Amino acid sequence: MNYSIILIIIFSYLIGSISGGVIVGKIRNTDIRKKGSKAAGATNAFRTMGVMFALMVLIIDVYKGYFAVEYIPHFLNNETDTTKALAGITCIAGHIYPLYFKFKGGKGVGTALGALIAFPKLLPVIGIAFASWIVILIITGYVGLSSILATLSVPILYILTQEIIFDELGMSSLIISLFIIFTHRENIKRMING
């Protein structure tokens, strides 16, 4: 049995459980999980605490996703696209359900971004997805909708540009986009209901 895979899952989840929103909130003596949407991510931080607070949260959340993918499989000497994808997915799961903070985390967008940019082959489609995020946000004013559509565009664009049905990156980016849709399910219901 390859114990390195188990360790990759455990360490990536624990890294993901480091919630930028909660940590920065403790410095400011506030709990953003009790404000606004009650999510511990950068969007809720921006709405409830302002730009600088949100920026600090975003930096932590993006970097931990990048760190999990780029370094944990490397440190455990099992660095493949599959193990890196696994690290990214479990890190995002840790962000959404953080062990250290009663399993109440953020919606995973920042951490997903960090995880995805650790794959050089995904960078071109991430650039397009980010541009689409800005355009959709300007047109609709909905951060949640922009995040859902931009994240979902990553596996679609990757599959189209690589001319393959699925590989590790295509599958992992699809799973990540489904994560984001799941965490934004309440936003989707509100948008449907007007």
**Terminal Cα span:** 51 Å
Structural class designation: mainly alpha
Beta-strand percentage range: under 5%
The overall strand count is: 0
Q: Outline, from the CA principal axes?
A: globular
Global mean pLDDT: 87
How many DSSP H or I helices? 10
Report the radius of gyration as a whole number of Å: 16 Å
- Report the uncertain regions: none
Q: What letter string, H or E per element, gives the SSE order?
A: HHHHHHHHHH
How much helix is in the residues? over 70%
- Sheet having the most strands: none
Tell me what the structure shows:
With 194 residues, the protein is mostly helical. The chain is 73% helix and 0% strand. The chain has ten helices and no strands. It has helices at 3-16, 20-27, 42-49, 51-75, 81-96, 109-117, 123-140, 143-162, 168-183, 185-192. The radius of gyration is 16 Å and the shape is globular. The chain starts with a helix and ends with a helix. The model has no long low-confidence stretch (mean pLDDT 87).
Q: Would you summarize the structure shown here?
A:
With 194 residues, the protein is an all-alpha fold.
Can you lay out the helices and strands and say which pair or pack?
Layout: H1 3-16, H2 20-27, H3 42-49, H4 51-75, H5 81-96, H6 109-117, H7 123-140, H8 143-162, H9 168-183, H10 185-192
Helix pairs in contact: 1-4, 1-5, 2-4, 3-4, 4-5, 4-6, 5-6, 5-9, 7-8, 8-9
